[in-house]
Amino acid sequence: MMPSWRTFPEGVPIPEILDHAEEAARGGDWVAAGNWYFHAKRRGSAEARDRVHNLRPQLEEAASLGDTDAKVLVAALLLDRGEGLGRAADLLEEAAQAGAVEGLRELGFMLNDGIGVPADPVRANDLFRRAAEAGDGYAAFNLAVNFYRGHGTGKNAREFTKWLQVAADLGIPEACAVLGDQFAIKGREEEALRWYVRAAKSSHAPAMLAAALRYRDGVGTAADPVQAVRWFLSMLDRGNGDGIHDAIQLARSMTLDQVREAGRLSGHPDEAESLIGR
User: Which CATH fold topology does 55-171 show?
Assistant: First the structure.
């Protein structure tokens, strides 16, 4: 049974997310397909971005018939292209009034920074809170950031920590990475690594680098060159080759089996083979 797109697909590989989108599209469930594509797009998939925009005619039709979730997706497509921002805000307002969690969050996003509408961070925080209380991890993260910045509210370390933890527990990679940073600042490196790895498994490139360096240097864990090279190579998923030099250096002291295992774990076996003998 296919999982619900409403739950953040933490750690699910991009090809699997795309498979869910294709399955939904074959069944004519354009809203599910669109949301799965957006999940993959947030993970850095250019293919998903193209495919979700191809669904716009079907989503426009569903939105015209009153489908609230379709309205949110049409608005998201407009935002992605930076066009029709007034219409996007109107669609999200309708969705928010209907209680759609994603509509609350996306309208809050527009209001937070004044994207196509007058900025209203106070209302944005109210929308983020309502969405977060309904289980939306991205809304919880946005709320945490605003409490940290004092944007639309007073700075509040306790509320920042509370909502950051909520977002991280829901698997939002940006939140997991920031939580990792918080533990690293306190010198709690084992916990920091755990959260960096959790973010890395959902394609967060800075967390991949943080995890790779810790496995390389044995910070918060025993040194593990296989895991270090794994995460250096995984950064390629986000078009980031900053870890390749480090991977080459490590591979020189590793066995062939170790390098190949790192390639298997990262999903980059060919790139791992290229490290051998360099």
Answer: 1.25.40
Q: What tens digit of pLDDT does each residue of 207-222 get?
A: 999 999 999 999 999 9
Question: φ, ψ for residue 127 (rounded to 5)?
Answer: -65, -45
Phi-psi region of 135 (alpha: psi -120 to 50; beta: other; left: phi over 0): left
In Å, how far are 5, 102, 192, 232 from 93, measured between CA atoms? Answer: 22, 11, 38, 42
DSSP assignment letter at 116: S
Is 55-171's fold the same as 175-275's? yes
Write the DSSP assignment of 122-163 as a string of letters.
HHHHHHHHHHHHTT-HHHHHHHHHHHHHTSSS---HHHHHHH
Confidence of residue 133 (pLDDT cuts 50, 70, 90): very high
The CATH architecture to which 175-275 belongs is Alpha Horseshoe (1.25)
| pLDDT single digits (tens) 99-127 | 999 999 999 999 999 999 999 999 999 99
